[in-house]
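Supplementary Methods S3. Input chains for the assembly prediction are listed below.
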Amino acid sequence: MISFGGPRLDEPAATRRHRPDYILIVYVLILMALGAITIFAVGPQHANLLNNAIGSNYSNDYFFIKQITSLGLSLVAFVVAAIIPYKLFLRYSGTLLVIGLAACLLLFLAQLGHLGIAQCTLGACRWFNLGPLGSLQPAEILKFGLLVYLAAFLGAKMQKDNVSDVKQTLLPVAWVTGLGLLFLAVIQKDLGTAISMTLIVLVMLVVSGVRWRILGIVLGAGLLLGLVFIVSEPHRLQRVETYLQGDKASTSSASNYQSQNAKIALGTGWWLGLGVGNSIQATGYLPEAINDSVFAIMGEMFGFVGVSLIIVLFVALLMRILRIMDHLVDQRLKLLAAGVFGWFGAHVILNIAAMIGVIPLTGITLPLLSFGGTSMLFITAGIGLVFQLSGYTTYSPSVKEATNEDSHSRRGIGRTRYASRRGA
Amino acid sequence: MKLELLKGSRSRVLAGCLLAVAALFVVRLFYIQIIQHDYYQQLADSEQIKRLTIPAQRGMIYALNGNQPVPLVMNETVYTLFADPATVKDVQGIINTVESVAGGNARSNLDKLLTTPNSRYQILATKLTTAQAEAIKKKGLAGIGFQQESQRVYPEGSLAAQTLGFVDADGNGEYGIEQGMDSALKGKDGMLQSVTDIASVPLTIGSRNVKKPAQNGENVVLTIDRNIQSYVEDALSRQLQKIGAPDGSVIVMNPQNGQVMAMANYPSYDPSTFNTVTDASLFNNNVISLPYEPGSDIKTFTMATGVDTGVVNAQSTYNNTGVINVDGIDIHNAPGDTQFGNITLQTAMNWSLNTGYVTVAERLGGAGQDINLKARQTMYDYFYNRFRLGQLTGIQLAGELPGIIIPPSDPDGNAVRYSNMAFGQGLDVTMLQVASGFSSLVNGGKYYKPSIVAGSVDDYGNYHAAKPTTPTTYIKSSTADQIREMTHVARSSVFPGIDKSGYYMGGKTGTSQAIVNGKYSDTDTIATYLGYGGSQAETKYVIMVRVSGPKFGGSGAAAAMPVFTDISNWLVRYLNIPPQE
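Predicted structure tokens for the full assembly:
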């Protein structure tokens, strides 16, 4: 039923490559720089905190240097994803999915075998421990693989116009997604990552044109499934209870602690914040100050004005991806862009929403800003892929002319080059 | 194609969702960061701002060496070494280092302490010196830390132990000057109100930090002269060991200013190891804390009362029959009385005859045969109000007790009691009261409130003497001079040749029976000697000696006086008093 070899389809007439959308890079770099500044500012406090708490011996600039290294690697991933022809991604989409699933399976086996390579906390193993190379989260590989696979798969179904066909399209998608969820939510007990993966699939389904009625059913099923997962784990239930207590929850109970301290960090920031390096919550009050909670720390340092600007940056970047998506002709490329949009968007929304107490804590990083390797590496690679695709956009005069499939897949009519649209 | 037409609308749905969520976020941020700012600021303050105490350094205690302060009690910084077993990496390394550096200060079961599960604090060694702490610190071992503490050190050992007192584990002064001037010695702890990190380490972030520096405690200089104190302690213990008496005290005062030059008790203890003392009575300064019946020393006060009111003088006579009847009760002289017939009060002083001083008390009431109310009121006025017996002197030491003198208005303050009081029974006083009152009898009639504080040493080490106390004149100077001479005669006629020649000394013995099971006991006596010395022109010192204890039957002349003589003869030289021909 599922063809892991990757659906082979006739390639639509290729759009000629043009200048890609460098604005994407500008947004990425600005966000990365803001994250690096934040980690530079609170890294020494974080090192001090860990040194006192677990007896480690981190130097003051340890986290900053590591973040710069991660940023460098992520930019390499960006370039690699931007250079490797998208056709290769599509051709080996099945292989990528298999690699993702295999990585998760390998981690599961390592966990069963109690191998040191499986890095576990509280009974959940989510990372490969690669020793001096750091750690690798296979869930990110799986997300990337699933994204590319579904782009190819759904793209093919769109061309056959049977994307809303339950048997031909939706059931296979459900199977693959279900398999991914089995690894992420059940085995790795990582509900946050599972939700973000589900959102990627959902966004791709939306863009693929699946009928709204079916999407409604899918969404309902997803929520039901999420509820089951929450109820099945006491610590998740606790987080939800904390969430339901709202803003008045006290910091004295352990389960409220992080959520409430995130809000304290934001609340003390006021209009303009305490200034770079003046975060007090990062000295130990707010857990995960440089990882999951970095947004709250930025709120403390940069204030309402600062974090609002960061939200504007994120929105601008996401809108840019949507805009590129709109102007891609090849359905598979459109879906690739949609997947990256869903991925990036899911992370941003889940993280910030948890920090401001709109949803319970999920343990998801804030892309490009949070300290951390794997997640940033793959998300940046995703944007790199979109950057590549932005070189294949077509700006036809109007979608109303879309009766002739070929008319918008070529340049020469009107302003076809992206560059000429600048400032429009 | 249908799909193409959908293109724009679907992405517009996504864009709409995104913008809606972003708008929600910004509104929510505005609510948290702006509207609720004060609420969260308040939460932050209660969590982040801590009040830390800046400990004030306890004042040092000095004695005088001549006119220069020398330290008796100093502070020393010691360190407690602790471990956080959760972050300890090199257990064996720590054990080796601590055992080799800290030695006896280390706990014996380091191995167990360092591997205690679920523990984040274990004390490995206490009272480490700065050098030891530095040596351990230099090894850079993970998971250990130091707590700084201050402890008292005593460069002069147990010198003046009861006068000093000690500082307990909570930093409170106990006994002596440590308790008596506790708040001045403590100083005022400062306060640092600061934003701190989660481990309460102050941060320099923000403008909410308030600092109030600590006021270090006062460095107190005692009036105690370390050389006199040292000699007095030796002299006392020499005598007590020689005669096998269990308990004794000595006070040396300067009668010209009321300052205590030495104050010794035997047996004593070492304040640096106060926590090993099992008998807490060793902490008591019996010079001020042990009211007793003073016995014949008091005859000097009775005589002064008679002289000052003009009813008697040294040459006044009375008929000594060896016994005198007061309200139907016979009062006898001590055994060995040979001076019968018409004798002077000087003779009665020399031989310490009780009848003579009962007679003085009688004459205070006029020419009657009874110690009437007027006599008793006069005696009470002099004893209590003028010589300040039976009440606290207000010396700056802790643990002073007032004793008691029963006033004539009390049903117990009858003629019999006052006849006894005339020769030192039926009243409880302390040595300090007697020595202070006696000082006013040998310095020309000026009563100085006794003091043990000579001044202070400031932060730069400069000595500032306290303002001299102004005396109160309660008796005529002629009265005082007569008593001074009477006691000189009493001493020199009965014990000729024991004083260094060229000096002017005087004194009065006292032997009172202790009350055992409600009766005066002849085997348990309190032997005292109250005397003074100096030149004829000026008294330089008053010394009072007490020797007592259970199963001790010594007399003032035999047990206590030798200590006086020993100290006195040494003191005239130490004080550089020029002898006169």
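DSSP finds 18 helices and 23 strands in chain B. Residues 2-35 of chain B form the longest helix (34 residues).
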